[in-house]
Amino acid sequence: MAKISAAQVKELRDKTGVGMMDAKKALVETEGDMEKAVDVLREKGVAKAEKKSGRVAAEGMAAVAIKGDHAAIVEVNSETDFVASSDPFKALVAEIADKIADEAPESVDAALALASDKGTINDAVIATTQVTGEKISLRRFKVIEKGADQNFGSYIHNGGQIGALVVLDGADEDAAKDVAMHVAAINPEYVSREQVPAETLAHEKDVLVKEALNEGKPEKIVEKMVEGRLNKWLSEISLDDQEFVKDSDQTVAHFVESKGGKVNTFVRFEVGEGIEKQTGNFVDEIMSQIKD
Questions:
Q1: What is the pLDDT of residues 139-198, one digit of tens each?
Q2: I want to staple 45 with a disulfide (CB 3.0 to 4.6 A). Which of 30, 107, 126, 264 is the partner?
Q3: C-beta of residue 188 within 8 angstroms of C-beta of residue 262
Q4: Residue pLDDT, tens place only, 38-57
Q5: Rounded distance, CA 127 to CA 121, Å?
Q6: For helices 34-51 and 20-29, angle between their N-to-C axes, nearest 10 degrees
Q7: What are the Translation elongation factor EFTs/EF1B dimerisation domain coordinates in residue numbering (predicted)?
Q8: Residue ranges matching CATH 3.30.479.20 in the chain
Q9: Cβ-proximal residues to 237 (8 Å cutoff; 6+ apart), any chain
Q10: 3-class secondary-structure state, position 70
């Protein structure tokens, strides 16, 4: 059996980010062959990731990377907020956001195939899974391209729990950042009421009509009541019509107009939205990990 030195173990740990014992075992298994040891750890990393694939990763971080005329907003998930706040996880998220902003892949699979210091982004995800012991996944991303007369604005809230990316026609980066902050806080659904789908509008109107009739309102005034309530609803879901979070005396559209611009688009990611989180006994979960 080949003698494994502390220097070899350190080198392998530096290359892969795994624990000391995992690195030593891989070197012993490959009789000190560094490249084969890396392959062994990658293979084990894949197995480890697959073993954890049934778990729900509903925590994590949203991040934004802006590279010239391209910007990317991403969501990367972990199982616990403890791992989401760790340095290895934060470094992975930053790398993923930067690579996606640079390369603008068309899908999550294409993003995972992008080159990384670990080989690919998928390899980097596996390596971080090894280090943290949790399932980690790139859930989604959006890449936006802007023109020369447009400005990006981004805002990250609460350590990455919410991320917002905005594009303004005209105005400036400071105004765009202020609108991104508003988007993060208020969560609009559309830029303007004109973007609301006709079927969505018709459904809401039908609900409001039935609501007014059930309240016993006379039919002759129901239409006017519904018109007022529909306008209120539209102002609540449309970014342009919302009261600006930093100045409730004006709408977002009026604020942006005062800066010489207009809202073009926005994207808002809230970590874990739409994911059904598992509940269970935390002590049992810890004990099961110890037994693995």
A1: 999 999 999 999 999 999 999 999 999 999 999 999 999 999 999 999 999 999 999 999
A2: 126
A3: no
A4: 777 766 654 344 445 555 56
A5: 10
A6: 120
A7: 71-273
A8: 56-145
A9: 188, 189, 190, 196
A10: strand
- Alpha carbon dihedral 236, 238, 243, 244, in 10-degree steps, equals 140
Gap between the Cα atoms of 250 and 240, Å rounded: 10
CA nearest to 2, candidates 31, 24, 25? 31
Q: What is the pLDDT of residues 220-240, one digit of tens each?
A: 888 888 899 999 999 999 999
- Tell me how far apart the alpha carbons of residues 52 and 46 are, in angstroms, rounded to a whole number: 10
Q: How far is the C-alpha of 15 from the C-alpha of 9, rounded, in Å?
A: 10
- Give the tokens for residue 136: 């980690």
| Beta-sheet pairing, 119-120 with 70-78 | unpaired
Which residue is associated with the tokens 């220097």?
Answer: 7
Which tokens sit at 81? 């907020």
> What CATH architecture does domain 56-145 belong to?
2-Layer Sandwich (3.30)
Q: Measured between alpha carbons, how far apart are the two ends of the chain, in Å?
A: 28
> What CATH number matches the domain at 6-51, 1.10.8.10, 1.10.1740.10, 1.10.3720.10, 3.40.50.300?
1.10.8.10
The token duo for 209 is 């009509």
